[in-house]
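Supplementary Methods, section 5.1.

A reviewer requested that the exact input to the structure prediction be made available. We therefore reproduce it here, unchanged from the version used in the analyses.
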Amino acid sequence: PQMKRTFLIYSLVFSAALLVRLCFIFADGHLAIAAIGDSSEYLKDAHEFFEVLCGRADFSTLALMMKQAGCVFPAFLILGYLLTGNIPDGYSVIGPLIAQSVTLAFACVLIGLCAHKCFDERTGYLAAALALIYPGFIVSSARVLAENLAVFLISAICYLTASLLQESNDKRKLGYALGLGITLALLQQTRSALVLVMVPVIFAILIQVRKKSFGKTAISAFFGFMLVLAPIFCLQKMTLDNISFMPDRKQNYNLCVGLDPVGRGWITYPFMSFAGLENKSAPQIIKDQMRRNPSEFWSLLLDKPARLFKFHWNDFRTPIRSEERRVGKEC
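The structure derived from this sequence is encoded token-by-token as follows.
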């Protein structure tokens, strides 16, 4: 009876989460923004990847995709297209948005199950309910973005890590370790900056897993990790003639924009010039931005820790009155 009740409650959470996201996308007028900005690039990548898989294009056409976006998220979009009976065409968004909504709904369930394992049943239900209504998870579902898949993968990693550390059965522990290695590799190839997630996971395993079973657990996790990376390395070799553990998501551009003393870390219009940025090192970019306006540069750095404590949906806003005072002084 207890398992049936748990299954029923999490089934309701999944259904409610999926319904909320689909309504937000299709019934609330947000479909128009689905393919804006980076989303259009991901859709284009999925189309080009599908053409190559079907033998209608050469692998060399995937060079830019493999270098900047990787192949995991485009492959996920292709799966979303096919499961909804559509062909990846580079511009339609129905299939990808439905696939994203399903994974985000599953993420709510995984968050609840993780909290259930770490604390208790009631905390698990509460965590799942909060994830269901969290504005950031709902708003992001209307855009075709790799962050949505990353949310699901991080939720899965948390659940698998908690399950691995609590499991006493050796066979099940190896299964959790295998799944953990697979999801860590997928996350690393989806959002390269999230490679840092591996640090607390490895630290937790080193501390909690018994020495007797540590070797088998580590081997199983490594096998799962390489199970994902091996075919990706082959694809990288065919398209880029080299291999990389993670895609380069224009790190120099992000660093330059994030430390821009004029735009305060945000993309502004008119856009700044990125000429020659790819050939510069990170220390050189930091040095150049500091030279532009040292006082504003250090003010921006001091402001960044405080931004981490702001709410997700309110982080981009600046108080109107303080902005008016600043503009008035400049005039």
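Residues 211-240 form the longest helix (30 residues). These observations are discussed further in the main text.
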